[in-house]
Write a structure and sequence with these properties.
The complex is a heterodimer of chains A (221) and B (211).
Chain A (H helix, E strand, L loop, with lengths): L3 E5 L4 H17 L4 E4 L5 H4 L1 E4 L5 E5 L2 H20 L14 H11 L3 H15 L9 H10 L7 H6 L1 H16 L6 E4 L2 E4 L4 H8 L18
Parallel strand pairs in A: 1-2
Antiparallel strand pairs in A: 1-5, 3-4, 5-6
Chain B lengths: L8 E5 L4 H15 L5 E5 L2 H4 L15 H26 L3 H4 L6 H12 L4 H14 L7 H5 L7 H22 L7 E4 L2 E4 L4 H8 L9
Parallel strand pairs in B: 1-2
Antiparallel strand pairs in B: 1-3, 3-4
Classes of the chains: A alpha+beta (221), B alpha+beta (211).
């Protein structure tokens, strides 16, 4: 069976919506996904902006077209999230998700189930605006809740974990990965959950013609 | 008035956009299955490439190196996806890499609608001419040969281009900036990946939706 590596970022609404259909691949194909962080630098390609609690824009460095793209992206992710009963509130600023990403790397050492619990908690609460993913203490408490022994986490965060995170970010750009969710199987890249039909086709042995892209996952809310 | 239908579906399509070509026949098949009013509108190539466009960097931009590397990563991905799209269409990557201005073709779609021409057949021939045969579809005289009725060249030379450009602004105001786009009951869907949920909605929105 081919190995599937999936790159995600907790601050991406598209990666949030892709999480459950992606986890469903593990059941369908009897595999264990290798999850890795791809920490987006959103400001570099969509500009930057900040809103206050009322939703009013208080800082703005975006062109009208960048705003159109950002608004569409949230609307698009939100409607599919709502269809599955997920809460997805638009963020009020561009978050630095690297601490949560290093938390992901740390949680991997505690096994598949702990990592899944950690990822589920971070995604669900962050998109409810109930989790400060830039707060080390908050991430540490989520790790504990997920069943991860956090001894050494702070050292890892400032040392080996940060180096590994940054190294992954360096390597993935050169490999042609730039967004999330991204799926890599046998060196072949698929970007976006619309490629899940192709990921399934690949994991299933590439039988028949290459399927088209589609948001076609049917998961009970 | 931006031509977006109320009570039907609007399909915004750019003949210069390869994913629109990939989406065209699946879209036609979907629309044949449901008896709803359909409005085909042209979307310009410049707007359609919004999401792929990288912001420019100044010399003192601390993110300049990152932006350049990310742009290269996007190019690597684009080549990969181009090959897949060409495989689906049965054309070779050199054909699929063709780049052209779709303004005249877009004006042609407006004309087809106004002149009572078969829009689907016009688009089908246009996609084939553009991507398979490499025909000069930026040339109004050539596009005119795809119509049964006379008058297209006159329309291009007079109000056609202005109407096309006005429509582009109206579509952007309506949140449509990528092709293919589908507008159903005021809801915008950009990309053919949405066809399953559009089918689900047109079919009465029963059961669990595809997501």
């Amino acid at each position: 069976m081919s190995r599937l590596t999936v790159y995600i970022d907790y601050k991406s609404p598209y990666a949030f919506v892709a999480k459950d259909p992606t986890y469903a691949l593990e059941q369908q194909f009897g595999i264990e996904i290798d999850w890795l962080p791809l920490t987006l630098n959103i400001g570099s390609y969509l500009g930057t902006a900040k809103k206050d609690d009322s939703g009013k824009v208080v800082e703005n460095n975006r062109s009208p077209r960048q705003w159109a793209a950002v608004k569409y992206a949230y609307m698009d992710a939100r409607r599919y999230a709502a269809a599955r009963g997920l809460v997805l509130k638009g963020t009020q600023k561009i978050w630095d998700s690297s601490i949560a990403a290093i938390g992901m790397l740390f949680a991997k050492a505690s096994g598949h189930d702990a990592l899944k619990r950690y990822t589920d908690i971070v995604y669900e609460r962050f998109w409810r605006r109930e989790l400060d993913i830039e707060d080390v203490g908050v991430i540490e408490s989520v790790l504990v809740e997920a069943g991860v022994d956090t001894a050494g986490f702070r050292d890892y965060l400032g040392g080996e974990g940060r180096r590994l995170h940054d190294l992954i970010q360096e390597e993935i750009l050169d490999a042609g990965l730039f967004g999330v969710p991204s799926y890599v199987i046998d060196g072949e890249m698929y970007f976006g959950r619309e490629h899940l039909p192709r990921v399934r086709w690949h994991l299933g042995g590439k039988r028949g013609p290459l399927p088209d892209v589609a948001y076609d996952s049917v998961l009970a809310p | 008035m931006n031509g977006l239908l109320v009570g039907g579906i609007t399909v915004c399509i750019d003949v210069a956009d390869l994913p629109s070509f990939v989406a065209f026949e699946p879209t036609v098949r979907l629309l044949r299955d449901f008896p709803v009013p359909v409005n085909w509108l042209p979307l310009g190539g410049g707007l359609a490439r919004l999401s792929a466009r990288q912001p420019s960097s100044s010399d003192d931009d601390p993110l300049a190196a990152y932006k350049a590397r990310r742009a290269r990563a996007r190019e690597t991905w684009a080549e990969c996806e181009l090959a897949r799209n060409c495989e689906r269409l049965g054309i070779d990557p050199a054909q699929g890499a063709r780049s052209f201005d779709s303004t005249v073709a877009g004006v042609g779609l407006l004309y087809a609608s106004q002149a009572g021409e078969d829009e689907i057949e016009f688009l089908r021939r246009l996609f084939q001419e553009a991507w398979v045969r490499g025909a000069p579809i930026e040339d109004a005289a050539f596009v005119a040969t795809l119509f049964d009725s006379p008058g297209f060249e006159e329309y291009v030379a007079n109000e056609g281009v202005a109407e096309f450009e006005r429509l582009q602004g109206e579509l952007l105001d309506a949140g449509v900036f990528n092709s293919p786009a589908y507008v159903l009951d005021g809801e915008v869907f950009q990309g053919r990946q949405h066809l399953p949920v559009i089918r689900w909605k047109l079919g009465g929105a029963e059961g669990i939706p595809p997501t």
